[in-house]
């Protein structure tokens, strides 16, 4: 059953990145059709929702057993594997929203395009929230395991209600959720030390790269 659970988790992430690739690449395909695009996105959403529900059920079973080791492993797996997808979708959301609004204002000052400006403005307000919703869906599995890990920590490690609320807030913020998760697992559960070292190295390298590019 443990092997089957991990197969479901891997397929969950596989479907997520396949969906993102479809969203980004299919519009550039020579066989692009809006009807097919919409229908396949609905299909992806339904399949992904099914995988997500299975993870909620699995997380609840792990919590009922009090199996902190499996909860931590699943929590870290989903947080690390889904973070790039969440960030990509958030970036698309911002580009579509701000780009659409900015373009609509530019079109407003040009007489020839004055009448199509409201269309771009409306499209940005309709399409952008869809990417925000998909981004939220992408992080739901990791958030579910995070919630149950917080409940286990309250039950077995004596966390206060304030600690639970604070860590829940951190778990809702992409990027901070990884750091907070490592703090929880290393500080309270004595696990995840190797991942904490890898994360620290990646953070240092990323910061160094950003500073180098700015200089």
TrEMBL record:
- Alphabetical UniProt keywords: Membrane, Transmembrane, Transmembrane helix
Query: Among its keywords, does the record have Transmembrane helix?
Result: yes
Listed transmembrane segments:
6-26, 38-57, 77-98, 105-124, 130-152, 164-186, 192-212
Per the record, the coiled-coil ranges are: none
Q: Could you tell me what this protein is called? A: Uncharacterized protein
Q: Which organism is it from?
A: Oribacterium sinus
